[in-house]
Amino acid sequence: MSNIIVKGNFPTNTIKNYATKFYGELDMGPAQWEPLFEKLTSDRSFELDVLTDNFTVIPAKPEAQTISYQTASQQFTTTYNHNSFGGGFQISKEAKDDGKEIDLMKKYMGQLATAAKRTNEYQGANIFNRAYNSAYVGGDGVELISLSHPTKIGNQANTLANQVAMSEAALEDLNVLALNMKDYNGNIANINTKKLVVPTALKHQAERITRSPLRTATANNDLNAIASLGDFDEGFLVNKYLTSTTMYYVLTDCPDGLKYFERTAPEFSMDSAFDAEVSKYKIFFRNSFLWTDFRGIVGCGNI
What we know:
alpha/beta; hypothetical protein PF0899 fold; 26% strand
């Protein structure tokens, strides 16, 4: 058997009154992905999220004439295929029995929980990290951030025509882009921006742009319209798992945007290898991260 934690892995663990310090066992804090995704549960192997088109305006009805009936149909279907994750550790009886200063089982059960949290952080962040990658597409067959999301009225964009660094002007343009979005039949979608999402490299700039009462990086004593209008009424969020230092994203209040389905919540279990006196501990969970409607997000940056 391999990858077993034995007492030789912790030679100081048998020294009485040893002052232990668990390097690497850090508090991850609140999950960074949770404020970005609608959280749902699932009771089957995958979820189909069907996005339909919309009715237009109600036409005038002449007296004594029949009313007009509108038709509707589905536009595309997004499949949320749940991924399975499992991992664990094995520990010898000797290592457990001789652990005078470190409760190894308790310590590494906590590490399993932390590893599961970290796994979801990477999954959630990868929706953003791959947003411009044509190898990762949504139900409409296009990557998350694109100039060419197909609709009945032609292609629509959820990014700027020119990819530019984050600035006050760029965020104003993204806000206007979101406000002017149309639904699949060309109606005003009535979408508003709510949260700015940035990597750590843009944290301080995001603070200045969204919270300064006056405009930033200018000698003009103008009002900061982003702050005064509350364009990002939920503020901004720094996600440490974003890999690009220049990309930035704005979440909108569009329904059916970014979604997380939990099929199986993290489950802990244990077993043993009877003849080897080895205990096994594992964690298992299933979930999926994706998006249904591209209007749930707009983004830009120096690709």
